[in-house]
Amino acid sequence: MKTIEGNGPSCPEQRQRWVFSFSVLGDLRFISHHDTLRLFRRALARASFPVRYSEGFNPHPRIMMPLPRPVGIASDAEAIVIETDGPIEPEDALLRLERQTPTDLRMLRVRRLEPGERLVPAMVRYRVEPADPAIADLPHRLRQLLEADVVPVERKTPKKAGTSSVDIRPYIAAIVVDHGVVEMTLRVTGSGTAKPAEVAGLLGYEASAINHRIRRLEIQWR
Q1: Comparing C-alpha atoms, which of 114, 126, 119 is closest to residue 171?
Q2: What pTM value is reported for the model?
Q3: CATH 3.30.70.580: does it fit domain 2-112?
């Protein structure tokens, strides 16, 4: 199990970074970002995966998710970056992880990141399934939203009581409505992004109870 614990030094030439794409469906979409990382840590250990560990008193596997998924949202486009202490066979690694993850999480693709390559999100596309009953004035709300120069929303201030106002209009790249199905493309910048539930709330949905109707379809990387 030496390759799993990764406590010994490794040559820089052997270290590699891999991005695994996966989907999250069903009840598993309700687990948090931290629980998803915990799930992968356990799956990697069971799969005898040569993960590289951090140094120090309490080493941790060097894995990260560049764009955490909001709790409740299903996804066809999740990504996790895993650093290894040596080379792996991609298709075999994908199969081994698939065998160690829950049914509602499906491993889709894997590729090696080039040295110095960063996985930075630029755009994210979401779909909102129609509510029951349908929102009658959805086209009017959509037109108002897209024509607005400023779209303020109230967000809870982390670690503080109260809220702050955030203009999310710069983050909205496109919204299309077809037979009650909403597809939105949101920009991700260094200053942040819009939450799909915030945009859905402006279209007439109940923002605090809409995530289970939202699905992440695609992430475009810089």
Answers
A1: 126
A2: 0.89
A3: yes
